[in-house]
Design brief:
This protein is an alpha/beta fold. The protein is globular, with a radius of gyration of 26 Å.
Length: 257
């Protein structure tokens, strides 16, 4: 009886059909210009000629040495805790993307169900499930980078114009893939981008183009601030510690002098 009464009360408070239609018809404004990836692309695997379980994968000698060092940090019964860094190693060895056979290999290496590895690989956005370019360009467009310096929008537009592709796409020569990302934690050096494992900070449209040109030529471009300053130090004159600091006892009451 009480359940029927509750149902009648809820129905009597329902939104009128016309009002609901107006609400559904309102446009939704997105904060990012890059097309969103559908959930089936994130969580559903479909075999392709480049990505299926029949393609062999194993760590080469260099990466196996690093993998053994990482696994040794954990007690034998908890070595599956190494799954995140091992997936990162596999992605790094495999040209910045993580195929199905690499996940299966790590599952065998850590003696854990393959499904547990899939769960990790599909949860974290740092794992690329599809092939990307040799240089994976992640342009931060979160608020600090949007407001810092020339602004991340100018940097993103410069990258897209120089490479001839929009964010979310790869250049025809397979050298560069460009995406928009959320905060990468270098807000004091905004705007910035991450390319593979390196941060390039304090960017302008001109300096990011120079970085891309250098990478395309095969040069080792120095990461970090591109405006000449040291890490996150003031870029002009001193703004803190402008006077000599006083030593112990000075300006203290006599009891503590």
């Amino acid at each position: 009886m009480a359940l029927r009464q509750t149902a009648r009360t809820l129905l009597s408070r329902r939104v009128p059909a016309m009002s609901l239609a107006r609400t559904q018809a309102m446009p939704v404004r997105t904060l990012m210009s890059t097309a969103q990836t559908r959930s089936d692309a994130l969580f559903v695997h479909r075999d392709t000629p480049d990505n299926n379980a029949s393609i062999p994968f194993s760590f080469n000698e260099e990466f196996m040495t690093m993998a053994k060092e990482i696994i040794a940090r954990y007690p034998p019964q908890y070595k599956k805790a190494a799954v995140i860094p091992l997936l990162h190693l596999a992605q790094k060895q495999n040209d910045n993307w993580l195929p199905l056979n690499a996940m299966n290999y790590i599952a065998d290496l850590l003696e854990m169900p393959a499904m547990r590895v899939y769960e990790v690989a599909t949860f974290y956005t740092m794992y690329n499930r599809d092939p990307v370019g040799k240089f994976f360009v992640q342009v931060c467009t979160t608020t600090p980078c949007m407001l810092g310096g020339c602004g991340s929008q100018a940097v993103l537009e410069a990258v897209e114009k120089h490479l001839g592709v929009k964010a979310g796409h790869t250049t025809k020569d397979k050298k560069f893939t460009v995406i928009e990302v959320e905060c990468l934690g270098a807000c004091a050096n905004a705007p910035m981008v991450q390319i593979n494992d390196d941060y390039y900070e304090d960017l302008t449209p001109e300096s990011i183009v120079k970085v891309l040109e250098g990478l395309a030529r095969g040069e080792k471009v120095k990461p970090g601030p591109q405006n000449g300053r040291l890490t996150s130090a003031p870029d002009k004159e001193k703004r803190t510690l402008t006077e000599e600091p006083y030593g112990p006892g000075k300006f203290c009451v006599p009891d503590f002098a």
